[in-house]
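Suppose a colleague, Dr. K., hands you the sequence of a protein chain of 439 amino acids and asks what its three-dimensional shape might be. Before reaching for any lab equipment, you can write down a predicted structure in C-alpha cell form. Begin with the sequence itself:
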Amino acid sequence: MYKKTVFFPIALMASWAVLLVAPPAMAEDLWQVYTLAVQHDAGLAVAGEKKAMGMEAVPQGLAPLLPSSAMTLQHSAIQLQRPIDDHFSKDSLTLSVQVPVFHWESLKGYERAQKEEKKALLEYAASEQELMMRSVRLYYDALLAMDTHQLALAEQESMGQRLAATKARLEVGTAVMTDLHDAQAAFDLSATGVITAENQRQSRFEALEELVGRPIAQLMPLQNEIPLIKPDPDNMEEWVRRAESDNLSLKMAELERDMAELSAQAALAGHLPAVDVMAAHSYSDSGAPPQMEGGVMRSNSVTLQMVLPLYAGNGPTSKVRQAKAAHNMTREAVDMTRRQVVRQSRDAYRGVLSTMAQIQATRQVLQSTQSNLETTEAGYEAGIRTMTDVVAAQRELFRAKRDHAQARYAYIVQLLGLKQVSGLLASQDVQAINAWNKQ
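The predicted structure, expressed as C-alpha cells, is then:
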C-alpha cells in the first residue's frame, strides 16, 4: 500500500473551518419535522377549513324538514278623499307556523347532507395521511441528499489524497504520467460531484423548509442497523382486501356515488306533491272611521296545503335524466378507483419486499466493493493494476454506499406507503419509524 498524503482542497478546508467556528445546530428528527408540518402546512389548514364547511351540511340539510315560523308587522298611513276627507292608520300583525309534512326533495337532501359530512371527515383524514407521507418523503429525501453530499466530500478528499500520492510517486519515478492524468481526472470529476450534491442538498432542505415554515439546519440520521419488518399479514391479497375495505380515496368515491344517487332521487320531486300544515294568528286595527267599518279584527287559521306540480316545461324530466347520468358517471368512477387501489396496494406490498431485498443486496455489494478496492490497491502497488482500476474501484465503493443509503430510505417510504393505501396509516406509525433514528 502506498503511503497516503493528506490533501485538502482549499474550498473544503474553508467549509470545515466555518463548521468548526460556528456552533453546532440542533438536529431535527422525523417526528419533530412532522409536528412542525402539522402546525404550518397550508394544505392541511385548507383541509381543516373544508372539513368545517362540510360539517355544516347536516344542520342545513335538516332545516327544511323542521317547522318554520314568521312574524309579519305592517303599518300603513291611509289618506281618504271620498266619500269623506279623512286620514287614518292601519296596523296588522300576523304570526304563522309552517310544518313540512312531505317534501321529497328535502328528505333526500338531508340524507345527502349526512353523506357530505362523512365525506368531509374522510377528506381531512386523507389530507392528514398525505401530510404524513409528504413529511416522511421529504425528510428521507433530505437525508439522502445529506448523505450524498457527505459521500461526495469524502470521495473528493480520497481522490485528492490519491492525486497527491501519485504526484509524489511520479517525482521518485514509481509512477507514470498516465497515472497522474487518471488521478487528476478523477479528482476533477469528484469536485463536480460535490457541487451537484451540494445543490441537491440545498434544494431538498429548502423543500423541508417550505413544509415546516422555518429553516432546517440538520437532520437526525438513521441508526446503522434498522429492523427489516415484513408486512403483517405476509399475504398480498389480504392487503388488497384491506385496501378495498378501508382505502380513503375509495371510500370517498363510494360516498360520491351515493350522493349522486340521492340527487337523482331528489330530482323526482318535480313530479311529486308537497304537503304542509300551516297555522296562523292575525290581528289588525284599521283605525278607520265608523262609516268605513274599521276597527279591530282577530283571526286564527289552520290549513293543510298540498301542491301538485302539473307542467313545468319538461324541466323536471330533464333534471331527472341529468341526475341519472351523473349517478352513472360516479359508479364508473368507483370502479376505476377500486382498480387503481388494487394495483397500488399490490405495488406497495411488492415494494416493501423489494426494498428489503435491496437493502440486503446493497449491504453485500458494499462489502464486496470494499474488498475489491483493497485488492485493486494492492495490485497497483505490485504494478499489475493501473490507477484507472484504482479510481474505478474507489468510485464503485462510494456508489455502493449511496445505493445502500437510498435502499434504506426507500424501504421506510414503501412500508408506510403500504399502510396509507390500505387506509391504516396513523401518526403512531410515524412515531414508531422515528425511533429508528439515532438518539
